[in-house]
Amino acid sequence: MLTIHADSQGHALAVEGERVAAAGPLEELAAAYPHARVRTWPGILTSGFVNLHGNELLEETYHPDPREADALGTEPLTGDALTALALDDARWGASARRGVQRMLAHGTVAAACEPLRNRAVQDAVRRTGLVLTGRQGRPGGVPSLDPLASGLPPVTPPPRTPGSAARFAVFDVHDEAELTERGTATCVATVLAGRLVFRRR
User: Fold this and answer.
1) Which of 35, 27, 22, 31 minimizes the C-alpha distance to 10?
2) How far apart are CA 145 and CA 50, in angstroms?
3) What are 82's strand-pairing partners?
4) Which of 27, 106, 130, 165 is the most interior residue, by most CB within 10 Å?
């Protein structure tokens, strides 16, 4: 079923399967696809972000289960706190799944990684649909779920056009300046391969 995603400024993408069928003003797309499902989102529709710290956030960080909050807190664990957990494959896989979900909640549509070494993490990430892009060495900066908080220039995929992958994010802000100021926790929706994989409730 074809779906039109539109932001509060009237910019829209028509999505069919895993691809963008059309891009343009909502009025034009609604007229061109009168039987499409229409989803309207507050804020601005963007191509999302590439998080440059894929290895650090997925293989060198533990994302606690909410049920572990009393013992471990809710913030990602690294360094000595991570080492002390002595994680088995099951916990690494579960952590990676939660880590990806938290990245999606910040409008991340791709993560830059050197080849993942942990098989449990590899399998978990592959099932999420998050796109992994290559990188050479560590990028510097501070690993963060918010790509705008890493201290590095943000990286975004090219604008979505007809035929491109249906991969984008919507942020509840008025413009890019407000997004930079408030950060990517303002994300309200993330789409990968045409599927709505995150929606702010």
Assistant:
1) 27
2) 11
3) none
4) 130
For 34-93, the three-class secondary structure string (H helix, E strand, C coil) is: CCCEEEECCCEEECCEEECCHHHHHCCCECCCHHHHHHHCCCCECHHHHHCCCCCHHHHH
Tell me if residue 177 falls in helix, strand or coil.
helix
Name the region of 121 (left: φ>0; alpha: ψ -120 to 50; beta: rest).
alpha
Do 81 and 141 form a contact (C-beta atoms < 8 A)? no
Q: List Cβ neighbours of 77 (8 Å cut-off, separation of 6 or more).
A: 61, 62, 64, 85
How far apart (Å, rounded) are the C-alpha atoms in residues 125 and 50? Answer: 15
pLDDT in tens, 8-59: 999 999 999 999 999 999 999 999 999 999 999 999 999 999 999 999 999 9
Q: In what order do the strands lie in the sheet with 44-46?
A: 44-46, 168-171, 187-192, 195-199
In 3-state terms the chain splits into helix, strand, coil percentages (rounded to 5) of: 30, 30, 40
